[in-house]
Recover the amino acids of this structure.
């Protein structure tokens, strides 16, 4: 395999992973008809590309196809709203203080020009927002490789590793465990 083929393969892998993370990020928003359509389109688009190791896209797509909108809303409410909710905010799982965590997360976002939309209701430490940011880092890596900017690729790759270690990767397993305990509807 030539260096150019290897680089193209790496770019494709980064783009595929970014698309999966964007899809997962959207899946942690309160469901409605528009979100259901976005999820179906996103899953279909990613399913066309083989080799996704993160999730069974066919099962995910099937779950969104067969689930009525009211059932999606009910399941989301059962899992993520109320007194026994699975908390989707990193600062609920940390021990270094909410302000410090939010400041560090915001620093990452600022450094890589990731702005929360004005209409976005979620805070910077929401699981969906962090997944979307990590997706952006993968897209930036792919673009840097495509442009031949090795130094920018390495900076972004290193930042993604640190963000995963210090933030997203540190607490996402706890969310998964809670969802398993709460018997989240299988995909």
């Amino acid at each position: 395999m030539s260096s150019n083929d290897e680089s193209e393969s790496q770019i494709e892998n980064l783009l595929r992973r970014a698309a999966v993370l964007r899809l997962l990020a959207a899946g942690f928003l309160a469901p409605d008809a528009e979100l259901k359509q976005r999820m179906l389109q996103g899953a279909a688009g990613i399913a066309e590309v083989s080799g996704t190791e993160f999730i069974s896209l066919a099962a995910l797509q099937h779950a969104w196809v067969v689930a009525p909108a009211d059932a999606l809303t009910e399941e989301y409410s059962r899992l993520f709203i109320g007194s026994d909710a699975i908390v989707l905010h990193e600062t609920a799982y940390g021990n270094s203080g909410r302000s410090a965590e939010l400041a560090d997360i915001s620093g990452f976002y600022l450094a890589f020009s990731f702005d929360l939309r004005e209409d976005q209701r979620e805070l910077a430490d929401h699981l969906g927002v962090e997944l979307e940011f990590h997706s952006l880092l993968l897209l930036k890596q792919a673009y840097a490789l495509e442009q031949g900017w090795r130094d920018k690729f390495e900076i972004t790759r290193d930042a993604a590793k640190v963000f995963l270690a210090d933030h997203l990767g540190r607490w996402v397993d706890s969310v998964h465990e809670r969802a398993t305990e709460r018997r989240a509807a299988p995909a």
